[in-house]
Amino acid sequence: MLPRFIPSSCRALKASRFISTSIHINSAETRNDSPSDSTSGSDSGTASIIPALTKTERIQISKHLDSLLPQYNRIGSKPSSSLYTNQASFKAQTDAREAAEIDSLTISSLVSAGVHLGHTYELMHPLNLNSVFGTRNGINVINLEKTIMALRRAGNFVKTVAQNGGIILFAGTKPFMRKLTIDAAYRCDQFYVVDKWVAGTITNSSHLLTKQSNYIVDRDDVFINQGSFQLPELEEKTPEIKKKKSRYEARQEELLKRTEIESNNVKTYKPDVIIALNPYDLTTMLNEANRAYIPTIGIADTNFDPTHLSFAIPGNDDSASSAKIIAEYLSSAALIGKNNRQRIITNNLKKKTRTAA
């Protein structure tokens, strides 16, 4: 039997779709309407008009809808056990997701960290108009909805890079960013830069990094077992000895030649993605990364040009709490990608051993 057309005036029947069976809506039959109304409705060929909802019924519907909101918010937050081979891998992946703290990233947590605070209106870059919510007391307020969207987009990219075995570089050169940058890099077993960025590290790495690979502070303070020289005893020098190179000088030249050859054989690797926590102070690094086609992620404050970054995250780069919550989120995404890579490698090894057996 085909369903009958419901006219627009029957609000009660439309609302009944969104409530459970425990909520009873008084229809025409439960209200004991007169049979003449029902017959007249059937004769006309249209549905009988049901009275509007009462105040108590509307309150019940609104309460029931409010109770369903947490269930919809939890959709997709917990992984399914059917996606994993055994209980151990499922537990490891669940622990990694809990450590990632991705589900706890909310607007309230960003507000408490001060991510929404920008610079004054006079210092605002015109390209940041889309990410600014408004101005209060002369200070720009960043739209945190755009921040969450940019964070999730950047987190997915970092997770993909880590899952493919890429190199991630965390850069934070401000004094208060030193510890949190190192912690974020150690958390996902990646690399970091907390000192001044040396110009040419990316574009001229073949020449610059090889010169910095081996550096001897004091040539006299070297182990003898490593093939180096031994400090000779002090002897009286004669004019005949001065014309020739002493044993000490000959060993010095030999050591310098050997270290130069070893430094030229050192391999250098460029990062696959750079995360700049203070990109306003790292414009030289960003220019080198763009020239070398390396994607960059950074905190774009209201006074910074976001076009210098591949993934610009609107936020406050002058606060330690703001930089910490963003760095932890990205490092957690990298940790998830690394765990996924290890799980894929172990599964492939198991498949190879099974086929070989």
Automatic annotation (TrEMBL):
<dbReference type="Pfam" id="PF00318">
    <property type="entry name" value="Ribosomal_S2"/>
</dbReference>
<protein>
    <submittedName>
        <fullName>30S ribosomal protein S2</fullName>
    </submittedName>
</protein>
<dbReference type="InterPro" id="IPR018130">
    <property type="entry name" value="Ribosomal_uS2_CS"/>
</dbReference>
<comment type="similarity">
    <text>Belongs to the universal ribosomal protein uS2 family.</text>
</comment>
<dbReference type="InterPro" id="IPR001865">
    <property type="entry name" value="Ribosomal_uS2"/>
</dbReference>
<keyword id="KW-0689">Ribosomal protein</keyword>
<dbReference type="GO" id="GO:0006412">
    <property type="term" value="P:translation"/>
</dbReference>
<dbReference type="GO" id="GO:0003735">
    <property type="term" value="F:structural constituent of ribosome"/>
</dbReference>
<dbReference type="InterPro" id="IPR005706">
    <property type="entry name" value="Ribosomal_uS2_bac/mit/plastid"/>
</dbReference>
<feature type="compositionally biased region" description="Low complexity">
    <location>
        <begin position="33"/>
        <end position="47"/>
    </location>
</feature>
<dbReference type="InterPro" id="IPR023591">
    <property type="entry name" value="Ribosomal_uS2_flav_dom_sf"/>
</dbReference>
<feature type="region of interest" description="Disordered">
    <location>
        <begin position="28"/>
        <end position="47"/>
    </location>
</feature>
<dbReference type="GO" id="GO:0005763">
    <property type="term" value="C:mitochondrial small ribosomal subunit"/>
</dbReference>
<keyword id="KW-0687">Ribonucleoprotein</keyword>
